[in-house]
Write the structure tokens for this entry.
Amino acid sequence: MKPFAYAVAGAPADAVRRISGSPGARFLGGGTNLVDLMRLGVESPDLLVDVTRLDLDRIEPVDGGGVRIGAGVRNSDLAADPRLRVAYPMLSQALLSGASGQLRNLATVGGNLLQRTRCPYFQDVTKPCNKRSPGSGCPARTGVHRDLAILGASEHCIATHPSDFAVALAAIGARVHVTGPAGDRTLKVTELYRSPGEDPSRDTVLDPADLITAVELPPSGPAHRTSLYRKARDRASYAFAVGSVAAGLGLTPDGEVGEVRIALGAVAHKPWRARLAEAALTGRPATVEEFRRAAGIELAAAEPLPDNAFKVTLSQNLIVAALLELAGGEAR
Ligand SMILES: Cc1cc2nc3c(=O)[nH]c(=O)nc-3n(C[C@H](O)[C@H](O)[C@H](O)COP(=O)(O)OP(=O)(O)OC[C@H]3O[C@@H](n4cnc5c(N)ncnc54)[C@H](O)[C@@H]3O)c2cc1C
Ligand code: SF4
């Protein structure tokens, strides 16, 4: 590993100042992704600015009923928060489905959101990869792509975003607070991530010196409280998703869909908010036929490759199974 300097930031502005104008500097959260990438030679920073000692480790209510989660909160602490387990079950379930207990003890909210793709070519510096080395090509298209994207990809990259947590946040409608050289700003989680387009080297719209300071959840509604996260993976634990769904459902007294929230994981460069399926379901009866119809509408735009075509059916089945479970005895 290339030698690097290490500094502990005392305040968010200090962290931003240390990274600004230093292309070789990186923020360090729990290090569970960044340090792995340094060992592989994918990342070779000359300065790590530790942001885990900032005053960003609280989970607190905000005016109007939402919740603000500091970017330094560890994934284990967030998953265990009793208020969030009741108000947003899909969030706790998504966190607990990821990595291992030891990793979740280290991993932070900010680091989880900005973890990099697990595409095998991205992690192997002996191979071309447009994301790691722009213009070098995308061998995944004709090579190993079983775990890669079926929605929103480009000819330049078919990587998927690996975070389970981000999928739940997309379904919840969370927002991300950022401070950077240009000041403070807030954006929706669904606006944080980019499609790969012609420049897959950038995963998000953030600049390198933008520090995530918090994630904010909206007030908990029926489709937040009646929600779940389901993940399909090759092993029962300690494995990234092959497909996943975060879903929430609020029914009217007549058994129709009043509010529905659906996001898919492991299918795109970003957590995929299934807005077409949501629109197709709203106001419709909560029946298995309607759930299937909506899932089909969402996946109609899929452009799978030979070895990941199974993800189309898998994602549809995840949506239908999640909604049936949420509707319980009321689904016909
Ligand atoms: C074996 C293994 C299995 C795993 N399985 C899963 C899984 O099933 N599901 C899943 O979702 N994840 C999984 N993970 C990934 C894990 O969740 C991430 O490694 C972790 O969440 C990253 O958080 P961190 O704080 O350690 O980030 P770091 O590694 O410290 O940082 C990651 C990136 O975020 C940047 N960063 C950190 N904090 C901030 C901030 N506040 N503002 C701006 N930038 C910041 C860093 O510069 C870096 O680029 C797994 C990891 C391993 C090693
Ligand atoms: S899919 Fe993206 S990350 Fe993977 S090899 Fe292609 S360009 Fe690189």
